[in-house]
């Protein structure tokens, strides 16, 4: 069912971590602000998947499905992006379309890029890390995504490590994903998360999912089999003074074993001299080509499923605080 047009405001919000200096810079949808101020569940969603994660506008479909699943579970979606000199928390349908039409022309905006995008009026599609930075400002406790960034293969030579991990370590938000992106060095990513004191939980699994596959990853710190359990662990983590977020790894359904394809794609991209933020979209595009599009269907499904699970845990968390 089509949603009514959203209203927006950009003033300071009672009970939220903001300040007058953000007026005109941070615009929060009224629906999102009302939910946060009343303690109702909110789930943050990124925009990089819209502009960089898929080809031919299919990222827009993934984002729309994620928002729909969040609503169906009883939470409010808060999709984050940067446009026209503002960080926007809660996007309209037209704004989502704008990110899809821009594609890779939109700047990938991690936490380090937010200020520059705002100051320069650049269209910025927030990564997991960039979205978490806004979660920290607003007090959003839950986020859904496909896979987080992490330690890249061959990191010893390149030191290529995603700032997603740093932002997760400093933001009290639970991120529901299918582990780290499969193009990464997943065991090294898990080791760094341990070093950063970020709890890695497995949703009905004892090992960290490997994006397209549920098995084959390193052991998780704890297994959870229900949303109430997940919400309680998050609440206790923060009550005990731990400042970090948590990662809840949900195995994808259906799965797709494409490790040989991934290895080939990573190798080709490396030989082409692609580095930094351009690596992930380049590899994903090549994986899509090499799998005949099968990776796209799995990716879209896991994004929607992870958003739904994030919403279910957010609802359980909100109910526990009433």
TrEMBL record:
GO molecular function: hydrolase activity, acting on glycosyl bonds
UniProt key word Manganese: yes
Keywords: Glycosidase, Hydrolase, Lyase, Manganese, Metal-binding
Gene3D superfamilies: Indigoidine synthase domain
UniProt name for this protein: Pseudouridine-5'-phosphate glycosidase
Organism name: Mycobacterium branderi
Lineage, highest ranks first: Bacteria, Bacillati, Actinomycetota, Actinomycetes, Mycobacteriales
């Amino acid at each position: 069912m089509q949603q009514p047009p959203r209203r927006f405001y950009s003033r300071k919000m009672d009970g939220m971590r903001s300040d007058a200096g953000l007026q005109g810079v941070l615009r929060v949808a009224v629906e999102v602000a009302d939910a946060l101020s009343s303690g109702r569940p909110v789930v943050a969603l990124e925009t990089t998947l819209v502009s960089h994660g898929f080809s031919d506008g299919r990222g827009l479909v993934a984002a729309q499905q994620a928002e729909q699943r969040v609503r169906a579970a009883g939470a409010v979606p808060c999709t984050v992006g940067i446009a026209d000199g503002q960080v926007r928390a809660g996007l309209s349908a037209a704004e989502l379309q704008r990110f899809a039409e821009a594609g890779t022309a939109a700047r990938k905006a991690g936490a380090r890029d937010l200020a520059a995008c705002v100051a320069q009026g650049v269209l910025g599609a927030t990564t997991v890390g960039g979205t978490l930075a806004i979660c920290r400002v607003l007090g959003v406790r839950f986020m859904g995504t496909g896979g987080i960034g992490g330690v890249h293969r061959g990191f010893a030579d390149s030191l290529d490590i995603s700032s997603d991990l740093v932002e997760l370590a400093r933001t009290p938000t639970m991120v529901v994903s299918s582990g780290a992106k499969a193009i990464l060095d997943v065991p090294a990513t898990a080791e760094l998360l341990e070093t950063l004191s970020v709890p890695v939980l497995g949703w009905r699994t004892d090992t960290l999912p490997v994006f397209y596959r549920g098995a084959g990853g390193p052991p998780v710190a704890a297994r959870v089999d229900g949303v109430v359990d997940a919400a309680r662990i998050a609440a206790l983590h923060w009550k005990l003074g731990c400042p970090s977020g948590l990662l809840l790894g949900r195995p994808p359904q259906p799965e797709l074993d494409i490790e040989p394809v991934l290895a080939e794609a990573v190798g080709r991209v490396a030989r082409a001299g692609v580095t930094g933020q351009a690596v992930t979209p380049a590899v994903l595009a090549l994986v899509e080509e090499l799998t005949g599009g099968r990776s796209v269907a799995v990716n879209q499904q896991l994004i929607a499923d992870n958003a739904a699970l994030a919403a279910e845990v957010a609802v359980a968390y909100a109910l526990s605080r009433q």
